[in-house]
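Section 3.1: Structural characterization of target chains.
Under the original work plan, the team committed to producing a structural model for every single-chain target entering the pipeline before any wet-lab resources were allocated. The record below documents one such target. The sequence was received from the expression subgroup and is listed exactly as submitted; it comprises 236 residues.
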Amino acid sequence: MTATLITGANKGLGFETARQLIAARHTVYIGSRDTERGRRAAEQLGARMVQLDVTDDASVEAAVKTIEADGGLDVLINNAGVAKEWRDDNVVIGPAEVTADLMRKTFETNVFGTVRVLHAFLPLLRRSAAPVVVNVSSGLASLTRVTTPSDPAYAYSGVAYPASKSAVNMITVQFAKAFPNMRINAVEPGFTKTDLNGNTGIQTVEQGTEIIVRMAQVDPDGPTGGYFDAEGTLPW
């Protein structure tokens, strides 16, 4: 069976992705910072739980050892993410208020966490016969979309979250070029109702996970180094 790790999978998009991939006969590891929440989610789904804080080297290294001892990894889904630029009154912190500290906190999970996990699991992925990486990005990562007045993304005024996801797109491209035997892609789930946005999204998690699940099951001759949503290829 295909062994799949999903970071940040005890709720939201990660949880639903795990559910669908288990139905597709994947052995799924739910990566969760909180051990108890992760354990409950894993029990509910029939998944395996691994404690995983993408901002902590020791946590990531321990997760690698656990999964390696079980037999290895075929699919890595970098789903863990934060959006810290929403104030309690649902107003976005824009350029006039954004600070280096806010940027740093956002990048610590969304960018450095993605690289930390990728780097740590590369040896296991390279041993797989059909390794796949899915980096969960955002439509707000697209410079084309946020500079096109007719596009809904144009109206978003935040800096930290879009910048972090643009960085994830660049990471995706450069890793895909470096490892041509892997399928490494970035995906945009769409504006989905999750805790990340205070459940203000317009899609269900089932709709949002469609592209994640699809790219997690991409064939060895499928696309790599791309940026996709449910409708197709997105502009950088």
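Helices lie at 12-23, 35-45, 57-70, 100-127, 143-146, 160-178, 205-216.
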